Amino acid sequence: MLDTYSAKICCADLYSSELARFILGDSLHPGGLRATNRLGRAMGLQPGWRVLDLACGLGASATALSRVFRCHVTGLDLGADAATASRQRALDEPIPADVAFVRGDAEMPPFRSNAFDAVVVECATSLFADKPAAIADIRRLLRPGGVLGLADVTVESGSLPPELDGSVGMMLCLTEALPAGGYPDLLESGGFSVSHREDLSGEVLSLLADLRSRLALVNGFGGGKSFGAADWSDFPPDILDRAEDLVRRGQIGYWLYVAHEPA
Asked: What does the alpha-carbon distance between residue 101 and residue 84 come to, in Å, rounded to a whole number?
């Protein structure tokens, strides 16, 4: 099994690939940009705010937040090609977005303290090797009274079967995910005040259905590629069956959380 840091690098490079973009879509998380904009509304993002999108992947969420809420958004991602590709895609859009992209580790963001009005973290906290330290650093980055929007997969303790507790589970952000109540506990332990929590677990079923159909296309055309510890073309369909069953039983979910740094 991959250690958490190696898996984080593997996932960053995997998710920045064009094949991953085809299979998972641009936003790479349940609910896509609908969920991202929902999170932005719950956060109360305001025009002109300085927003950091940690582990921004292909930059779709960062670009959408900038356009919808008229914020200046900085996206940070560890993937080797993510920053360059994200910047080019943003420039190619008909309406330019006020967005910049930087390559770096979301657990060691290279920014000064109090630099941002808001921080967004989608499907990344579950991969952080030291979650309390990462939350402390996010708090450092926020101005007094700043807001954190966190969205992630949730896994209830002891619910993962062996076939999902490995590289495939890591690809799906499952193996280090917290229970639904674990993220608020993490945030409050880090000095944040949680003001909003929302269950979007139904979006996981939609993502798994899309994943199933797109993997069938990849396998049908022989287009699979190996990406280190994981291979999209060898992704077993029965694992998706198990994941869907766990979602329906409430063992796997997807939640949004909003928390504020004290003023």
From this structure: 8
| Three-state secondary-structure class, residue 81 | coil
CB 74 within 8 A of CB 54: no
pLDDT tens per residue, range 111-156 = 999 999 999 999 999 989 899 999 999 999 999 999 999 999 999 9
Query: Which residue do the tokens 């930087």 mark?
Result: 102
Residues 6 or more apart whose Cβ sits within 8 Å of residue 144:
114, 261, 262, 263
Q: Where are the domains of the chain?
A: 4-260
**Beta-strand relationship, 252-260 and 142-155:** antiparallel
Residue matched to tokens 């030291």 = 130
Residue 36 has pLDDT above 50, yes or no: yes
Higher pLDDT, 232 or 165: 165
Output DSSP code: residue 134. Answer: H
Contact between 72 and 47 under an 8 Å Cβ cutoff? The reply is no
Asked whether 81 and 87 are in contact (CB, 8 A), the reply is no
- Structure-model confidence comparison of residues 51 and 238, the more confident one: 51
> How far apart are the C-alpha atoms of 27 and 4, rounded to whole Å?
22
4-260 adopts what CATH topology?
A: Rossmann fold (3.40.50)
Which range in 54-58, 159-163, 220-224 is most confidently predicted, on average pLDDT?
54-58
Question: Which one-letter amino acid corresponds to residue 193?
Answer: S
Crossing angle of the two packed helices 237-248 and 202-220, in degrees rounded to 10: 170
CB 116 within 8 A of CB 146: yes
> What does pLDDT average to over the chain?
82
CA distance 257 to 127: 17
